[in-house]
Amino acid sequence: MFANDKNIDNLQQLLAELKKYAELQKDYVKLHLVEKLTILISTLILVFILLILGIIALFY
């Protein structure tokens, strides 16, 4: 009987750890997405600024 209770406790602990792991993976994916979007947006802003400066230089 004690072994069965211990197995149930182990399964509950395993499920809790799996939930925690899934939550951490979800947070990691969000963080990774924000990182990639930040790089993309900053690159687009830099290209836009260089394009504007190039157009100004051509007309000057």
TrEMBL record:
Keywords: Membrane, Transmembrane, Transmembrane helix. It comes from the Bacteria. The chain crosses the membrane at residues 37-59. This is Phage holin family protein. It comes from Bacteroides cellulosilyticus.
